[in-house]
Design brief:
two-stranded antiparallel sheet, alpha+beta, six-stranded antiparallel β-sheet, 14 helices
């Protein structure tokens, strides 16, 4: 986002109902682990009433730096599909294999579109090399060879990337357009967010904060001492995280985790999800669409690690009850808050009760998930109370 464009979004915090003292408290928490030397940089943005009341970068990057937001991208990919649902070109009750016949193999014929959004589709670890997306034959071959790990709809297990590849393919089939072009033309441009990229142009690679790993991982003994289950090994390895430094991976626009942008774009995208679009611009989503997408659909599906209800809407997480901190929200978020975090501690949410939205990005991928989770709750809790009394 150019300086001129950014100035259009920036507002005096008090003029948009934000408390300067609360924002300062948030700033200090964001910069804490940068000042301590754990994180190389962190970028924070807080928005309300369609404007930014805070946008600042700490550490060795600047406000012009772009960050990989990892799984926070899922909300953008999902919001693209919402447009097709709104237009009547897609239904969550459809079978994914009826739209993408190549996917309808090995028992996956019964997977519904809704299950793709809810991480209940049954193929959480299905392999897919990002650059295979650009080769249509390889892409479709991947879909065809995937097998189920368990019966679709029977439980929740987070699909780090697999289900979103299928949703992106569905967007292409039903819109007749390239997925990354669809996101650019139907979401980023109407919202006035030029630095929102799902598929990074080669000319912008120099602006991306390079990812690095930080701190020491917890050992099996650490988890036992804390009385916590040890997380399972997934596709999200240290090597996979660092692969998002590679231009060829950045260019793909991985729909489940490859969005690249500033924290300002994240916060303003969520303002769009609160208001249906950017203030003063054309509406992107109808209110009925946003209400549909934010409706909790996951029922009694539980997270296998936290043993808490997952509270999933259509590709996003809804804050809900007192267990909201296990879902990536702060203690002070309302039950209506919704969003989707990302690997390494990226934070993205909006709260309809206060009108606040937040984007937090860091290029330091913390090896300690307990510390990373505590950071997210601490930052979100402080952001949630930034509305002026």
């Amino acid at each position: 986002m150019s300086e001129a464009s950014r100035s259009d979004w920036l507002a005096d915090p008090a003029s948009i109902g934000l408390d300067p003292e609360a924002l300062e408290n948030l700033r200090e928490r964001v910069r804490k682990e940068v000042d301590e030397g754990l994180l190389p940089s962190a970028q924070i943005a807080v928005a309300r009433e369609g404007r930014l009341g805070l946008f600042e970068t700490f550490g060795n990057e600047t406000n012009d730096s772009l960050y990989c937001i990892f799984s926070s991208t899922k909300a953008i990919t999902s919001a693209a599909a919402w447009l097709l649902i709104e237009s009547g070109d897609l239904s969550v009750d459809e079978l994914a294999g009826d739209i993408v016949p190549e996917f309808a193999t090995n028992g996956k014929e019964v997977v519904t579109v809704e299950q793709l959004f809810l991480h209940s589709a049954g193929f959480p670890s299905a392999p897919f090399r990002p650059t295979d997306w650009l080769d249509r034959e390889r892409r479709l071959q991947r879909f065809a060879t995937w097998r189920l790990n368990w019966e679709p709809g029977s439980k929740f297990e987070y699909h780090p990337t697999s289900s979103m590849w299928v949703i992106a393919e569905i967007v292409e089939r039903r819109s007749g357009r390239d997925f990354t072009e669809f996101v650019r033309a139907e979401i980023a441009e109407p919202l006035g967010l030029p630095d929102m990229f799902v598929g990074l142009p080669a000319t912008r690679g120099k602006d991306v904060a390079q990812l690095t790993h930080c701190g020491d991982p917890l050992t099996s003994e650490d988890y036992a001492r804390l009385g916590l289950p040890e997380p399972p090994v997934t596709e999200v390895t240290e090597e996979v995280i660092l692969s998002f430094n590679y231009p060829e991976v950045q260019a793909v626009g991985v729909p489940g985790g490859g969005g690249i942008m500033t924290a300002a774009e994240v916060a303003l995208f969520y303002q769009g999800l609160l208001h249906g679009g950017s203030v003063g611009r054309r509406r992107v989503w109808e209110d009925s669409t946003l209400e549909m997408a934010r409706t909790v659909r996951s029922g009694d599906l539980f997270d296998p690690l936290s043993k808490k209800r997952v509270n999933r809407g259509l590709g996003i997480v809804v804050s809900g009850d007192k267990d909201r901190n296990f879902r990536g929200f702060g203690h002070d978020n309302s039950p209506l808050a919704f969003g989707h975090g990302g690997a390494g501690g990226q934070i993205a949410w909006a709260d309809p009760a206060t009108g606040i939205s937040i984007g937090y990005c860091t290029n330091g991928h913390d090896r300690n998930p307990i510390r990373m989770g505590g950071r997210g709750v601490g930052i979100s809790s402080r952001a949630a109370v930034c509305a002026a009394a």
